[in-house]
Amino acid sequence: MFLPTRRAFGVWIALSLLGIAPLSAIAVSPAQKFPKACVWRVTNAKASFYLVGSIHALSKSDYPLPSPYEIALRDSKRFVFEFDPNHAAEFERKFEAAAKYPRGQDIRSKIDPELLAWLRKNILTVKAEHRRGKRAGVAAFDSELCYKPWWIAQHLAAPASYSKSSASHGLDNYFVDHAKMVGKEIGGLESVDEHVAVLGGLSDRDSEFMLRDALTQPTDGQKEFSRMYKAWRRGDTSALWAGDARLRNQAPRIAARLVEDRNVKWVPRIEAELKTGKPTAIVAGALHFAGPRGVIALLQKRGYEIEQL
Q1: Taking the CB of residue 143, how many other CB atoms lie within 10 A of it?
Q2: 141 lies in a domain?
Q3: What's the CA angle centered on 185, arms 179 and 187, to 5 degrees?
């Protein structure tokens, strides 16, 4: 599992929470030609070096991908993701542990009483796979008060916007599967603990904001995801950046934590990969490559020449 880098955390709410139309219903035919892709090449690197903006959930109809993605796959001998997918099991274990309050604490003292009352009335269980067939009621939610608001938001605020199938077709998994199949190197920009901490380290206030935001935005989820998906398909980072403006305006601290602060940490690590002279592709959520503090802009400030394919 990869963190839905903001809304998949570029559209964190739309990708991870809201009930939206099947991805295939808004997918554009792969046969259609697009002016650009979310793939960039560092032209003054020692060897082939690509920056690949991913989207974490796709449908079968999105394949085959536009040619720039296949070029990056073919030319790269090493793939570096947001965290090393070889440690996915460790991530899953630590991620769920981070979603729970320490012993002796629970959500009742952490969020507004009115919000707690709403959750008790409307939320069945945090274990999404057990939702069907159970009767709603206070007892079901109260049995799982140990979970933090951001975890509840991610799993329960509304029906999941992408299924296990669509997540399995995500670009990250496509690249991981290719790398493993042909024996190419795999690495991560963040350690497992760093990746977990993006959400696991949220303050109580910010965690509650994410839950409230998820609960109050459902009607816009389908349109928001559709806009961001189409922007990704045509490689339009300006549209991706503009589409993320609401969170930056309403919760700038959260917005920075999810994307820009991570970009700043990543750039020296990406530069270290560049200096190895090994053909490499950096694969991360597309929003990380957009905006004035995106990875593209930060690398260009360091003197790297970058072209979009």
Answers
A1: 11
A2: no
A3: 105
C-alpha dihedral sign at 34, 35, 36, 42: positive
Sign of the torsion angle spanned by Cα atoms 176, 157, 227, 296:
negative
Please list the residues that pair with 187 across neighbouring strands. Answer: 80
113 prior amide bond cis, ω within 30: no
- Residue pair 147/164 in contact by the 8 Å Cβ criterion: no
Place of tokens 């070889």: 86
> What does DSSP say about strands 185-190 and 49-54: parallel, antiparallel, or unpaired?
unpaired
Residues 6+ apart with CB under 8 A from 48: 41, 75, 76, 279, 280
Q: Per-residue pLDDT tens for 77-122? A: 999 999 999 999 999 999 999 999 999 999 999 999 999 998 888 7
Percent of the chain past pLDDT 90, that is, above it, reads 63
Residue 224 within a domain: yes
Q: Which residues constitute the domain of residue 242? A: 6-86+163-308
**How many separate domains does the chain show?**
1
Q: Is residue 221 part of a domain?
A: yes
| Cβ–Cβ under 8 Å, residues 15 and 162 | yes
Let me know if 113 is exposed, middle or buried by CB neighbors in 10 A (0-12, 13-18, 19+).
exposed
Long-range contacts, stretch 127-131, CB < 8 angstroms, 24+ apart: 128/155, 128/156, 128/160
Q: How high does pLDDT run on average in the chain?
A: 82
Q: What is the 3-state secondary structure (H, E, C) of 40-82?
A: EEECCCCCCEEEEEECCCCCHHHCCCCHHHHHHHHHCCEEEEE
Any domain includes 154: no
